[in-house]
Amino acid sequence: MFNTWIVFIEKELEPLNPFPTKELTATTLPPCFDKFKNIRCIIDCTEVFIQRPSSLGAQSWTFSNYKHHNTVKFLIAITPTGGICFVSQAWGGRTSDRYITEHSGFIDRLEAGDLILADKGFTVGDLCAKKNAHLNHPPFLHGGNQFTPSEIHETRKIAKVRIHVERAIGRVKQFHILDSNVPISLKSVITPMFRVCCFLTNFDKPLVT
Is residue 119 domain-resident? Predict the structure, then answer.
């Protein structure tokens, strides 16, 4: 009964949470994004703990070196106002952020001139460029022992607005169904479970105004 209803709710909520048009994003742009006029969305990946699978192959595929636990990983995109506008399928915790971004269908949503904000771990600038979109992330420290003043300024400018995707993910994680290890018995519906939690947060007041 649970499996049937969670899949049904996902299908019902998905049309209510479309990927926004460029025009809508521009007309609802909060003042804190005034230095990122062409922004379309902010992206990040998040992980959900799962019960350790019995299969050694599945254990390897789902083990996250970052979390030191078996997990599934999702790519999330939010609008500048903080609404979740894209949620990928579940991937094993071992999967890289780049691989998920490339194969989740997110890149297909982009249009020429779009600006995407991300953490420095997202080395997907070339993937965005194929759609004539631009990825903006904090600079890497190359060679020297410290950032230049301009790099520090750029890092702070991006971090100030990129934090909103972490706040949006925080809202999702407040649903108690994701509190503990998701049992393997629910592996077939873990994507609908997580996506429903994401879609429901969009009924709350905007994160950014």
Answer: no
**Per-residue model confidence (pLDDT) at position 144:** 59
How far is C-alpha 109 from the geometric centre of its chain's CA atoms? 14
Q: How many domains does the chain have?
A: 1
For residue 147, tell me if it sits in a domain. no
Residue 82 lies in a domain: yes
Query: In this predicted structure, what is the pLDDT of residue 140?
Result: 66
* Planar angle of CA 79, 64, 56, nearest 5 degrees: 135
Assess contact for 79 and 28: CB atoms under 8 A: yes
Q: How far apart are CA 28 and CA 20, in angstroms?
A: 10
DSSP state of 193: H
The per-residue pLDDT for 67 is 94
The label of the residue with tokens 């390897």 reads 60
Q: Which two tokens stand for residue 181?
A: 């290890």
In 13-112, which ranges are E strands?
A: 39-49, 63-64, 69-78, 84-87, 91-92
User: Is 123 within 8 Å of 110 (Cβ atoms)?
Assistant: no
Residue owning tokens 């649903």: 175
Q: What percentage of residues in the chain have a pLDDT greater than 90?
A: 78
Domain of 174 in residue numbering reads as 2-6+21-110+163-201
> Helical H runs in 41-113?
56-62, 97-103
CA distance 116 to 135: 5
- Cα 87 to Cα 43: distance, rounded to the nearest angstrom: 10
Residues in the chain: 209
Token readout for 61 is 């595929």
Which tokens hold the place of 12? 């019902």
